[in-house]
Amino acid sequence: MASGGSAIRGSRVGSGPMGEQDRGFQAERVQISYWDALGNETVRSFSAIIPDEEIPETIDCPASGLPAGRDKENPPSVAKIAPYKTHLAYVKERRSDDEAAELLDEALTQLRTRRGTLSS
């Protein structure tokens, strides 16, 4: 049993042929290649009318996440990523052990005074 076919299957009613005149003006583009340290190439398109200094020198490579530059022979090196620091690590950078002990004693004295448990 043959099913009835439709000549317009997959197209919208009223749609016509899609030609360049229907899509509007196509801006001129330039293709710029970027390479990362692993040799991955990423090609980005930019408008041909923007100045060259507005085109970025480096991008993040979508394949590896590494920085990628325009010079294939000398790709940018990976910047050293600082490890995550906790709040306590930052405090320890600012305070010496003696200062920390002094601050702790002051805080405990204030707490005990408020609670009324300070023994004189």
List keywords for this structure.
120 residues, alpha+beta, two-stranded antiparallel sheet, 4 strands, 26% helix, 17% strand, elongated
Task: Please give the share of residues in helix.
Answer: 25-40%
- Main β-sheet, in a few words? 2 strands, antiparallel
The helix/strand order is HEEEEHH
Overall number of strands: 4
Structural category is alpha+beta
Strand content: 15-25%
Basic shape: elongated
Q: Which ranges are low-confidence, i.e. pLDDT below 50, for 5 or more consecutive residues?
A: none
Q: How much is the radius of gyration in Å?
A: 32 Å
The mean pLDDT is: 83
Q: Terminal Cα separation, in Å?
A: 102 Å
Give the count of helical stretches: 3
Characterise the protein shown here.
The chain has 120 residues and is of the alpha+beta class. Among the domains are: 26-69, no CATH class; 82-120, no CATH class. It is built from three helices and four strands. It has helices spanning 20-23, 87-94, 97-115; strands at 29-35, 41-47, 58-60, 67-69. It has a two-stranded antiparallel ribbon. The longest helix is centred in the last third of the chain and has 19 residues, at 97-115.
Concise structural overview:
The chain is an alpha+beta fold and 120 residues long. It has 3 helices and 4 strands; from the N terminus they run αββββαα. Among the domains are: 26-69, no CATH class; 82-120, no CATH class.
